[in-house]
Amino acid sequence: MDLRNYTDAKNRRTALEQALKITLPAIGSFSLSEDFASHHNCENMVGAVQIPLGIAGPLDFSDDKKHTVYIPLATTEGALVASVNRGIKAVTLSGGASVTSHRAGISRAPVFVVTNGKAANVFIDWIETNQKLLNQIAQETSTHLKLISIKTWHSGRNVFVRCSYDTQDAMGMNMATIATEKMVSFITKETGVVCASVSGNMCGDKKANMLNVIEGRGIQTWADVELSPEIIKDVLKTTVPQFVETAHRKLDIGSRMSGTIGANAHAANVLAAIFLATGQDMAHVGEASTVMTEVEQGKNGVYVSVYIPDLPVGTVGGGTALETQQECLKIMGITGATEGENVKFFAHCIAGVVLAGEISLLAALSAGHLSSAHQKLARGTS
Question: What is the third-level CATH fold of 54-103+219-377?
């Protein structure tokens, strides 16, 4: 049975049901536009999978333009939304999350094949000399794209050319690929050097890697807050010494012992939930989860920070255009297209909620409440 022979989701689903001798009534019940989704997001579409959606918040920020936001989280893990909500309460009562960001740009890194090391140096010199021209070629592919940087690495007969782009509100992976392909064609025509692959893995796309931690990818984002002893006791139900010790042994020693890229409590948990709710590319959780969480005891309580070096997200294009994902973005106050301000705000929201999630889990672990919380919320009380 070739499902490509069927013209719509209903007919494909019926054929699948008959072939497998099962019924799929829930998968066949959905509100999104089948015509749009089947032409833009999913081939051989037969229906939709529903994920429970919860709301955490309101989360306050302590920047100059103080704002409050509710965060949509799509998850099947009981206790996650409740835990994040508790962390948000602690952050908000502490004056809100302080968040900053830097656009590192979405990257694409083709690999070229040269004859030897000397030829590699000649080729790299040509790339560096012609960066202005290559920038012009890239920008011809989209008015919403700008080449930020070109960096090169060489090993043996391989030269990797990492191109990073500002793609405004879009995550921009497709835009980056199209622009890079046009540059590659020009480079090969001018130099005679052949490209083996438009993606040579030095872009770090959808893989946890140290290059993206060092160089940054998408939007590098930082969030921090200082928690008072009273909030740690009353809201988080633990003590300053317990919280700090747990963070040290788990984040510092445990991460080092396991060889983890990044050092965090469960950043991927929160990232996956907000990515799913808002139509992000879920595979990017693999690289975005290299989060650095730091905890320091001070005179007035505990300072907690998260650094997300690699956050490839967008507020237009891809899965963000689906109806339910659009509604989730609207919950956060994000609508339409801007020149990058919406995606910057979105990244700040993500950093703030990741910070809250880290705080709450570390508190639960330090107080020994992790198992009891899951027993109560994930399994029910019966």
Answer: 3.90.770
